[in-house]
């Protein structure tokens, strides 16, 4: 087992954050770091070290870790720190299966209920995903992607489903995103969100469902495993 203080240094997307709403901001950043693989299993992470990376005190980091523990993403190591819980291939297959059963029909139903004035906001959110991809910001990419899809699902009007989808997304692992960055193809994946919005604007809901299924399917494809050299 290595620690975040002793492991070999490498470029990280974890960086200093703004100080408003610290607990939520740190929680979102740490969750995205787990999903993207920036934070790995079998590595011991301490609150003081993470707080230095974020440029905040240790308190919001510890509070954020409590949130991630409740989501089943990390576990506490008494008097030492926290470790990311591993997720098996079977777990990921089951998570994807449930997402495919729930997200596409709910998103299509939500898309039918979107108010006309919401599209500029959704376009801005989609562009935020592209911007994160262009800057190789994996944590920003994962967080912006999550917020984009959950924002649309809000209009379905089912808070339990929204929480279920949010939790399932948190349990997904997208370790292949690093490979997409290295091959320069993450931006192409990011632009899929604009393509989804094109279908919504055209009210082509018959095409939206399979597009969403293909989009989610990538979480067990190149987003999870990367691309071959």
UniProtKB/TrEMBL annotation:
This is Putative transcriptional regulator, GntR family. It comes from the Bacteria. GO terms for molecular function: DNA binding; DNA-binding transcription factor activity. Keywords: DNA-binding, Transcription, Transcription regulation. Coiled coil: none annotated. The lineage of its organism: Bacteria, Bacillati, Actinomycetota, Actinomycetes, Mycobacteriales. Residues 20-87 form the HTH gntR-type domain. It holds the Pfam family FCD.
